[in-house]
């Protein structure tokens, strides 16, 4: 019987790969309907594969020398054959998407541009792409393909470092960026597997992230930068659980300097490590942040100007925020969402019993109260969800694809039925998840 399930799992993965090959071949000019279709089709296959792993009916064997070597390198005693098969196929899926054209978002063009700006000795926080000082850097593609040419850089310094390395590797081609992403994704999958083992979960649950269409499509088709921040993030969480606080703090700082989201877990460190150690960790993160920002500081510019504009004006695909806007002004809704989020973080930080679960709930609360929820933001909760399997998170990873209907419209339009499909199911399942797991958090 197990051979039949192994065969089913094999053909599921094969069909999954064929869909990705089909997308890469057909998606010449950013075909959003094709993107949406392939996302849903692969997600259904993904759910079947996850179900087979969940039911523990699949087993594969790799050469013993190979698994023993990896086990020694990762300091793991468990049988890693099946998890490594899953990770290896996840790597193959990502490689298939290397040639894929950007589809639902052109953000990666800005990443490449800012890497080009830095490598030519200019400060992307000081000069916007349309600035006269940078005209000599203009090419046929850049910065003409960048949205918001009149806006300066918003991404933190660690992200800028990655952009610079990627540009050094491949110039204006995106494969250098995707190559770096692949390295970070391998680290993410390996440390997620280690975290699963540490938390006494099935290491094969790494499939929840390794085969996840969102991480594949958003990070290897649209090439969003969250990849390396998520990698630092999951390694940091693992090290915090191992009580290796210095290394965990340094990596958390790198994660924050890739994208600011992980800063929200800092209050959880007070209970995890004690007040004195938490203060030290906070100061260490501040010191690392100052050192990273120092090369970009200029008297001529405010390096946080775009960040402040984003916090004040940006909105997309929100849930609670959009609901509150029906009864009050945008500004009041933003303030109330911020207060509710901070209250949620404080409550979780005070009451949690399991650090990793507390981190997952904090990041989920961020998604709930955020004014902007692009699909790629969900990677920050997707990477921890394999440890606890929140059904609400899984549903949002599936339905968030519907938000890609917005850029298909001639005029930027958000659809009420899309929001209801995403968040209606999400909050219903969230109630179930809270009842199922709240005892371990609050």
Order of helices and strands: HHHHHHHHHHHHHHHHHHHHH
Helix proportion range? 55-70%
Biggest beta sheet attributes: none
Assembly context of the chains: single chain
Structural class estimated from helices and strands: mainly alpha
| Count of extended strands | 0
What's the helix count? 21
Tell me the Rg in angstroms.
22 Å
Shape verdict: globular
* Proportion in β-strands: under 5%
Task: Summarize the structure in short.
The chain is mainly α and 442 residues long.
Structural description of this entry:
By secondary structure, the chain is an all-alpha fold. The protein has a domain at 315-442. Helix content is 64%, strand content 0%. It contains 21 helices and no strands. It has helices spanning 2-26, 32-54, 64-74, 81-96, 107-119, 157-170, 175-198, 207-210, 213-220, 226-241, 245-256, 268-273, 275-293, 305-313, 320-324, 330-351, 355-369, 379-382, 385-388, 391-399, 416-437. Helix 10 (226-241) runs antiparallel to helix 11 (245-256). The longest helix has 25 residues, at 2-26. It is globular.
Keywords:
442 residues, mainly alpha
Topology overview:
Blueprint lengths: L1 H25 L5 H23 L9 H11 L6 H16 L10 H13 L37 H14 L4 H24 L8 H4 L2 H8 L5 H16 L3 H12 L11 H6 L1 H19 L11 H9 L6 H5 L5 H22 L3 H15 L9 H4 L2 H4 L2 H9 L16 H22 L5
Helix pairs in contact: 1-2, 1-4, 4-7, 5-6, 6-7, 7-10, 10-11, 11-13, 16-17, 20-21
């Amino acid at each position: 019987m197990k051979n039949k399930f192994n065969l089913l799992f094999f053909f599921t993965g094969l069909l999954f790969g064929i869909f990705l090959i089909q997308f890469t071949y057909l998606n010449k000019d950013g075909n959003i309907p094709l993107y949406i279709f392939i996302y849903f089709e692969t997600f259904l296959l993904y759910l079947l594969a996850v179900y087979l792993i969940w039911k523990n009916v699949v087993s594969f064997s790799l050469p013993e020398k190979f698994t023993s070597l990896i086990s020694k390198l990762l300091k793991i005693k468990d049988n890693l054959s099946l998890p490594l098969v899953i990770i290896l196929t996840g790597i193959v899926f990502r490689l298939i998407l290397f040639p894929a054209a950007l589809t639902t978002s052109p953000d990666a063009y800005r990443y490449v541009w800012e890497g080009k700006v830095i490598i030519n000795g200019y400060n992307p926080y000081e000069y916007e792409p349309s600035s006269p000082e940078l005209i000599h850097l203009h090419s046929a593609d850049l910065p003409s393909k960048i949205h918001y040419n009149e806006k300066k850089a918003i991404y933190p310094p660690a992200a800028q470092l990655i952009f610079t390395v990627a540009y050094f590797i491949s110039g204006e081609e995106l494969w250098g960026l995707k190559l770096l992403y692949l390295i970070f994704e391998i680290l993410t999958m390996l440390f997620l597997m280690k975290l699963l083992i540490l938390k006494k979960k099935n290491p094969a649950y790494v499939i929840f992230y390794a085969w996840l269409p969102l991480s594949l499509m958003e990070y290897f088709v649209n090439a969003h930068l969250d990849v390396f921040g998520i990698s630092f993030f999951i390694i940091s969480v693992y090290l915090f659980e191992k009580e290796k606080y210095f290394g965990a703090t340094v990596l958390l700082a790198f994660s924050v300097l890739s994208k600011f989201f992980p800063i929200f877990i800092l209050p959880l460190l007070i209970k995890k490590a004690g007040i004195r150690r938490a203060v030290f960790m906070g100061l260490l993160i501040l010191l690392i942040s100052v050192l990273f920002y120092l090369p970009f500081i200029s008297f001529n510019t405010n390096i946080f100007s775009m960040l402040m504009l984003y916090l004040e004006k940006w909105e997309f695909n929100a849930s609670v925020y959009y609901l509150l806007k029906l009864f009050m002004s945008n500004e009041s809704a933003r303030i109330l969402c911020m207060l509710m989020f901070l209250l949620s973080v404080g409550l979780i930080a005070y009451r949690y019993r399991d650090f990793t679960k507390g981190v997952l709930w904090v990041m989920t609360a961020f998604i709930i109260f955020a004014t902007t929820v692009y699909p790629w933001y969900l990677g920050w909760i997707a990477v921890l969800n394999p440890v606890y399997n929140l059904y609400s998170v899984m549903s949002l990873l599936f339905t968030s694809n519907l938000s890609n209907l917005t850029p298909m419209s001639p005029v930027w339009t958000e659809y009420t039925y899309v929001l209801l499909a995403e968040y209606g199911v999400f909050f219903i399942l969230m109630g179930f998840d809270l009842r199922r797991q709240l005892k371990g958090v609050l």
